[in-house]
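so i finally got all the pieces together for this one. its four components total, 178 residues if u count the protein bits. some of the lines might not be protein, just check the labels. i wanna see the whole assembly predicted at once instead of chain by chain like last time, that was a mess tbh
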Amino acid sequence: MRRRILEWLKDRSNFPPALPGHEDLEGVCVAYIQEKAKLSQSTISNYMGLLKQAGFVKAERHGQWTFYRRDEENIQAFLAAVKDELLKM
Amino acid sequence: MRRRILEWLKDRSNFPPALPGHEDLEGVCVAYIQEKAKLSQSTISNYMGLLKQAGFVKAERHGQWTFYRRDEENIQAFLAAVKDELLKM
DNA sequence: TCCATAAATCGAAATATCTCGATATACAAA
DNA sequence: TTTGTATATCGAGATATTTCGATTTATGGA
């Protein structure tokens, strides 16, 4: 599920339109992700925390919302490392 | 550990010499794998069964020994599938 | 046929992972 | 300051994974 969330975050249009006054932000709020994932709020909040801790997303707090977006640099580094690992296999 | 075993199996010389009379076989017996992995006999037997079920190795019984060797075709197909999956990420 | 050895199977303990509901915290608006 | 909404944290249940020791099965040799 966490991988699917990362994929969804590649395209903002996977989620409802930006909240009024936040059209410029690329991130997506937890509630939108939760709605799409159909898992509980606490689970998604937890997952986004794990993804952040792993370096796959960046969080930006604006008011009561936390907007999450991909951290492309770390994701690409991770992919390179996995590919390297797979080469051995 | 199962991935490490697969890597070991790429090179027969990761294990002791073939048993007398089985020099022509490319596979490796369970006991050799167990010795290298430093896990219990039952664990390794179980793991080799899982690897076989997953299609990553082929088993060949000769006498009391079961010789396991990589199934390159399936491994490469798997790697291609994983790479494909990673591209989405 | 009986025994020894290799491998497979079984049942279980320890640990990790996924997911939840309840509660706490942060913040904005009234 | 009170209230409502968004998110985070906590504790726990269900399930999955890793690994083990004990036992069973298969097989070759004495």
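The mean pLDDT of chain A is 95.
The two ends of chain A are 25 Å apart (CA to CA).
anyway lmk what u think
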